[in-house]
Design brief:
The complex is a heterodimer of chains A (about 290) and B (about 300).
Chain A: H1 2-48, H2 52-55, H3 72-80, H4 83-114, H5 117-130, H6 135-148, H7 155-161, H8 163-179, H9 183-191, H10 196-225, H11 228-233, H12 242-249, E1 251-252, E2 255-256, H13 258-290
Helix pairs in contact in A: 1-13, 3-13, 4-5, 4-7, 4-8, 4-10, 4-12, 5-8, 8-10, 8-13, 9-10, 10-13
Chain B: H1 2-15, H2 17-47, H3 64-71, H4 73-105, H5 111-123, H6 126-136, H7 143-150, H8 164-192, H9 196-204, H10 209-238, H11 241-246, H12 258-268, H13 272-280, H14 282-298
Helix pairs in contact in B: 2-13, 3-13, 4-8, 4-10, 5-8, 8-10, 10-14, 12-13
Classes of the chains: A mainly alpha (about 290), B mainly alpha (about 300).
Chain lengths: ~290, ~300
């Protein structure tokens, strides 16, 4: 009897110790991963506020402000470079792309989720596969198409072409969200005398709202990320987006405006990452629901 | 009278699934055909012509354009690099992403800030994320060199982007770094799909971490890890910005890949036909990947 109690006690201690080691491992892995992922950004944050007299001394501790921090280079970025033009262009293109994407992907996704059972599923996979045809394969003929349409050196070229990237993936996500809403809801509304479109507008779309917002964020970030089309179509700084403008314009010859460059990276990275984190769970649900049989 | 009949007919059409489905799908499908299908065909046509920016007439020259592309050793270097970078980076991605996904599903304090920091490499536009690396790997002021110098491990700076092997490793590291978060998120989604009964049964049977990892998690996660790798390969093979921003293909083409070489030849060099031919070599890779995706889809594991 006594040995039994002793065994239980020892087992519990062992369990306790295992648990503690498990927590320590977990935290060190989590912190290690965070540092590895964020290191260049953390270093960029330090760099952005350094004086040149501090930054460009090889033996100065790079992780310390040897001279007092300064806003000079952030100021330079905002008021002496085209950074704000790039930001405006990115936002304009992003919003226009979001509108085109929703206008085309919402009906597509609804049809894939609810109508034409037989081939809807195959078409769904087909649409998903279009996502796998990369801009890298298409940018050369596309640059001729854009030139022939007389759209080079304008934001319209990007507004026209980016939906080819956003529509497939958005249709897939939206299809998942539609599938997540029980069919009965709109069918009931149709029994109550609404047309299908009326029923969808009044019952399904309001329920879809969080999913639609997630798709808006996703499509917007995809268009803000895009690099190769923007690089190939537009050479003038007035029509560049941040993804292309910052790496090509803030480097003049061999002169790097390092502090301003890093500040530019951070000013974009942090808000986008915050936005993305808010909707991460929604994206994951959308992808997995899209894979569920209708 | 006739208007009401028409109205009813119109309404009937909208209720009819046979009519409604194509109506709803056709705008998106036409858009994709016009702006993905057409340029894709054009890319293939260009590869068999001598089209340049200056002379945009389509004169068919058979395989002449390909012959010219093949004659340049840089093309073969680019082809090799493209595969090499993708394979090495994604092997690393599998390991790190599985570990990271296991960490991120656990509950712990301060998880949101860890998640925010971990996702930064993926959520930041690639070209801007690469700029932070450009500075971190600077030839004179790299903080990594400073640490190594102060630990007494090196005397001179490493010139990460100036030496062929180091530059290749740097490109692979940046690719791995930016794809791991996405892959981890995909794996996490797969983990959520493992039924709790299996985990509970394993707990009751007294299985410990490693046993659970090798006998439950990894076998059940294999299909979803495959999906993460497919995405990873596509992202590495087709990406232009990492190499473009970090090394511009240098030193002396040591890090040149197909997309950058196609860009330098086709857009900067103006030889559209050659650029298109180079980019076309991505196609077999993508077809192979597509075949794998479809196979997985048919097995009803994920799609």
């Amino acid at each position: 009897m006594a040995t039994d109690v002793f065994d239980v006690e020892r087992e519990r201690q062992l369990e306790h110790r295992r648990h503690r080691w498990g927590r320590i491992t977990l935290y060190s892995l989590a912190i290690g991963a965070a540092v590895a992922a964020a290191f260049p950004f953390l270093f960029a944050t330090l760099t952005a506020f350094k004086q040149s007299s501090d930054l460009y001394v090889k033996d100065n501790n790079p992780f310390w402000f040897n001279d007092p921090p300064t806003f000079e280079h952030v100021h330079f970025l905002l008021f002496n470079t085209n950074f704000l033009t790039f930001v405006r262009n990115t936002v304009v293109v992003g919003l226009a792309v979001v509108i085109v994407t929703l206008a085309l992907a919402l009906p597509m996704a609804y049809a894939l989720a609810r109508l034409g059972m037989r081939w809807g599923e195959r078409l769904g996979i087909g649409i998903f596969l279009v996502y796998l045809v990369p801009p890298t394969l298409l940018f050369i003929p596309m640059s001729r198409v854009i030139a022939n349409l007389n759209l080079q050196e304008s934001l319209w070229s990007l507004i026209l072409v980016y939906p080819t990237i956003t529509i497939p993936i958005s249709s897939w996500l939206l299809m998942g969200f539609f599938k997540g809403i029980p069919r009965d809801i709109e069918e009931q509304a149709m029994v109550d005398g609404y047309s299908r479109i009326g029923a969808v507008r009044r019952t399904v779309l309001p329920l879809m709202f969080p999913g639609i917002v997630a798709v808006v964020v996703f499509a917007f970030t995809l268009s803000a990320h895009e690099f190769i089309y923007a690089l190939a179509f537009n050479k003038g700084s007035a029509v560049k987006t941040i993804a292309v403008g910052v790496p090509t314009e803030l480097v003049r010859g061999d002169v790097f405006f390092w502090q301003s460059l890093q500040a530019a990276g951070l000013l974009v990275a942090v808000p986008v990452a915050l936005l993305f984190n808010l909707f991460l769970d929604k994206f994951v649900t959308g992808f997995t629901m899209g894979a569920v049989k209708g | 009278m006739t208007t009401s009949v028409l109205k009813r007919q119109k309404r009937y059409l909208f209720e009819n699934e046979r009519f409604l489905a194509p109506l709803l799908m056709s705008p998106a499908i036409l858009y994709i055909i016009a702006l993905v299908g057409f340029p894709l065909v054009l890319a293939i046509i260009y590869a068999f012509t001598d089209i340049t920016v200056g002379d945009s007439s389509l004169d068919f020259v058979g395989f002449e354009t390909f012959r010219r592309v093949f004659d340049d050793p840089v093309f073969w270097r680019s082809l090799r690099n493209t595969f090499f970078f993708a394979v090495v980076a994604n092997s690393l991605v599998v390991i790190f992403a599985t570990v990271l996904a296991n960490v991120l599903v656990a509950d712990f304090k301060g998880k949101w800030i860890i998640r925010f920091l971990v996702l930064l490499p993926w959520t930041t536009p690639v070209s801007l994320a690469t700029i932070t690396w450009l500075w971190t790997l600077d030839s004179l002021f790299s903080p990594l060199d400073w640490i190594l110098r102060n630990l007494g491990l090196i005397e001179q700076n490493s010139y990460y982007l100036g030496k062929a092997n180091l530059a290749m490793s740097s490109v692979i590291a940046v690719h791995t770094w930016r794809i791991v978060p996405l892959a981890a998120v995909i794996v996490m989604a797969g983990m959520a799909a493992i039924p709790n009964e299996i985990k509970d049964a394993a707990d009751i049977d007294g299985a410990r971490f490693w046993r659970k990892l090798f006998q439950i998690d990894i076998p059940l996660l294999a299909p979803i890890i495959a999906v993460a790798v497919l995405f990873g390969i596509i992202l590495t093979v087709t990406d232009i910005s990492v190499v473009f921003v970090l090394t511009r293909g240098g030193p002396t083409h040591a890090t040149q890949v197909l997309p950058t070489w196609a860009f330098f030849k086709g857009i900067e060099g103006g030889a559209l036909g050659q650029g298109a031919a180079i980019a076309l070599f991505l196609f077999p890779v993508l077809v192979a990947i597509t075949a794998v995706v479809l196979r997985l889809a048919r097995r009803r594991e994920i799609l």
